[in-house]
């Protein structure tokens, strides 16, 4: 009886020791917050969730490796905030993430939201890496902590303008945009490139990002007899626009910029989608070494196909984590210096930043709808 009692006590002592060791290990684990800012409600919610899903996938993979930074075990957690695609809310979200002591922010989605929010992060010294906002002004403020892992409007819409004027040989080009910082920015850069390459703009109209009827603008454009219409805006409105064009008997080529090349456009546009063309950011994922695996992994985890920005959000997250690991620090001021010197082979291709925080060699690809599917036509990469 006594021997059994002693054995029982020894067992309890061992269990208690193990619990103490486990508790000490947990106590030593450092939680690192990665902020995510994107629209999770409203018209841009699908894109915002796409970004969040890309970040989450990277964070879960990183945690599965039991990472250590500066000799201490760390666990990455996501602090996700809904900016509602509203610049005013975006500023509030940015301040919330700063107050939450995030180490880095992946976001925002909309250029109009990113522009004011970026100033909040810069003032706090927190790196912001946008996987989606493309207005060139975002990285022109001289902030040393602002980065972008996607081509800018001047690069992507510039390619569209060059293509429209020199490849399609369109003689009469019309433009319509949604008057957001993104859509208008795209349209402005497209117009610059068309004119720089000898093309002629015969009409320019605008709507807003909530509109569902474009009859007035298209009727006005139709009078100018264009052979190409460019739209600066997102997929749902682009689909409604091209559908209305065909209903009005307009045979002009439809061309758009980023944020349009997805299944949603084809579904909403129906038969009118056939022949539509867009210039989208980056290279075709299926043609990149890690692209197909990422698509399959994303679909398996979330049960849906990704939209345009999940791969860029995934890469942005890994770029930040890699910089922390190389710097041996989760302190923004310390790992930001390493972030500047990034040379990372991502899902979306090579990531290296210039002095402004933009990609050194951004790419964009022309896609066209053929037989109810987007087909890549050509890719342009800046030197």
CATH architecture of the largest domain: 3-Layer(aba) Sandwich
Helix/strand/pairing category: alpha/beta
Major beta-sheet overview: 7 strands, mixed
CATH class of the largest domain: Alpha Beta
**Element pattern in H and E:** HEHEEHEHEEHEHEHEHEHEHHHEEEE
Summed up, the helix count is 12
> Regarding quaternary structure, how should these chains be classified?
single chain
Compute the separation of the termini in Å. 82 Å
- Widest sheet: strand ordering: 8-7-9-10-11-14-15
Rounded radius of gyration (Å): 24 Å
- Can you give the helix content as a percent range? 40-55%
**How would you state the average pLDDT, rounded?**
92
What is the CATH topology assignment of the largest domain? Answer: Rossmann fold
Shape: elongated
Into which percentage range does the β-strand content fall?
Answer: 15-25%
Number of strands: 15
Whole-number tally of structural domains: 2
Catalogue the unreliable spans.
Answer: 1-25
The CATH superfamily of the largest domain bears the name Response regulator
Family: Belongs to the leucine-binding protein family.
Signal peptide: 1-27
Protein name: Amino acid/amide ABC transporter substrate-binding protein, HAAT family
Keywords: Amino-acid transport, Signal, Transport
Please provide a written account of the structure.
The protein has helices spanning 2-28, 45-64, 87-99, 111-124, 153-166, 181-196, 215-222, 235-247, 263-269, 291-302, 310-327, 332-340; strands spanning 30-38, 68-69, 72-82, 104-107, 128-130, 146-148, 173-177, 201-206, 228-232, 253-256, 277-281, 344-346, 349-351, 363-369, 374-381. It has 383 residues and is an alpha/beta fold. It folds into two domains: 27-151 and 289-352, Rossmann fold; 154-281 and 365-381, Rossmann fold, CATH 3.40.50. β4, α4 (111-124) and β5 form a beta-alpha-beta unit. It starts with a helix and ends with a strand.
């Amino acid at each position: 009886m006594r021997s059994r009692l002693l054995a029982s006590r020894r067992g309890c002592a061992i269990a208690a020791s193990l619990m103490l060791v486990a508790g000490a290990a947990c106590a030593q684990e450092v939680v690192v917050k990665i902020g995510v800012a994107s629209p999770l409600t409203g018209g841009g919610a699908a894109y915002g969730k796409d970004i969040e899903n890309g970040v989450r996938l990277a964070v879960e993979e990183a945690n599965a490796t039991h990472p250590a930074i500066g000799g201490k075990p760390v666990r990455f957690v996501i602090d996700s905030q809904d900016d509602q695609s509203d610049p005013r809310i975006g500023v509030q979200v940015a301040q919330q993430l700063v107050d939450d002591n995030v180490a880095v922010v992946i976001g925002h989605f909309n250029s109009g939201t990113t522009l004011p929010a970026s100033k909040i992060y810069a003032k706090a010294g927190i790196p912001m890496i946008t996987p989606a906002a493309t207005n060139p002004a975002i990285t022109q403020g001289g902030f040393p902590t602002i980065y972008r892992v996607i081509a800018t409007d001047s690069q992507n819409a510039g390619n569209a303008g060059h293509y429209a004027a020199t490849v399609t040989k369109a003689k009469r080009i019309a433009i319509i945009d949604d008057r957001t910082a993104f859509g208008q920015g795209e349209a402005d850069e497209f117009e610059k490139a068309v004119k720089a390459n000898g093309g002629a703009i015969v009409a320019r109209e605008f709507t807003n990002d909530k509109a569902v009827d474009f009859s007035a603008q298209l009727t006005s454009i139709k009078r100018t007899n264009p052979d190409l219409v460019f739209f600066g805006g997102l997929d749902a409105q682009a689909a409604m626009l091209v559908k209305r064009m065909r209903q009005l008997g307009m045979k002009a080529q439809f061309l758009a910029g980023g944020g349009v090349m997805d299944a949603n456009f084809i579904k909403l546009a129906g038969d009118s989608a056939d022949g539509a063309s867009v210039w989208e950011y980056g290279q075709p994922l299926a043609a990149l070494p890690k692209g197909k695996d990422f698509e399959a992994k994303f679909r398996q985890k979330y049960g849906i196909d990704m939209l345009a920005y999940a791969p860029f959000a995934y890469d942005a997250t890994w770029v930040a984590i890699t910089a922390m690991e190389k710097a041996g620090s989760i302190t923004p001021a310390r790992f930001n210096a390493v972030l500047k010197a990034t040379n990372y082979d991502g899902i979306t291709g090579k990531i290296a930043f210039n002095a402004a925080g933009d990609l050194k060699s951004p790419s964009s690809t022309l896609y066209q709808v053929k037989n109810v599917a987007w087909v890549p036509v050509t890719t342009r990469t800046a030197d």
